[in-house]
Design a protein that fits this description.
This protein has 116 residues and is mostly beta strands. The protein has no helices and 11 strands. It has strands at 3-7, 10-13, 18-25, 33-39, 46-51, 57-59, 67-72, 77-82, 91-98, 104-106, 110-115. Strand 5 (46-51) and strand 6 (57-59) form a beta hairpin. The relative contact order is 0.32.
Length: 116
């Protein structure tokens, strides 16, 4: 059974930092592209950042230079370091995992709230 469990969300002031973690089980972690997505109230879910099994990364323009995605294959964990947070970063953040030619699995999400 695949499980993705996010943690690290919370309330932070604008300009602050948070680090999200997502621990995966039930998958061959090293072959999965891991990603962070977010969904703000009334908006569609959007891709924030992704990282392949080889470590190649991709970021949404809105977070480039502020967020960093990384992974630890030994710990089956993907991270999202978020710096210089803005109120518009407020959303539920979801972790996903997708192996080549396979379905995407989702975590339940963690709330990030940035106050102005």
């Amino acid at each position: 059974q695949v499980q993705l469990v996010e943690s690290g969300g919370g309330l932070v002031q604008a300009g602050g930092s948070l680090k999200l973690s997502c621990v995966a089980s039930g998958i061959i972690f090293r072959i999965n592209t891991m990603a962070w997505h977010r969904q703000a109230p009334g908006k569609q879910r959007e891709l924030v950042a992704s990282i392949t099994g080889e470590g190649s990364t991709n970021y949404a323009d809105s977070v480039k230079g502020r967020f960093t995605i990384s992974r630890d294959n030994a710990k089956n964990t993907v991270y999202l370091q978020m710096n210089s947070l803005k109120p518009e970063d407020t959303a539920v953040y979801y972790c996903s995992a997708q192996a080549p030619f396979s379905t995407r699995f989702w975590g339940r999400g963690t709330q990030v709230t940035v106050s102005s």
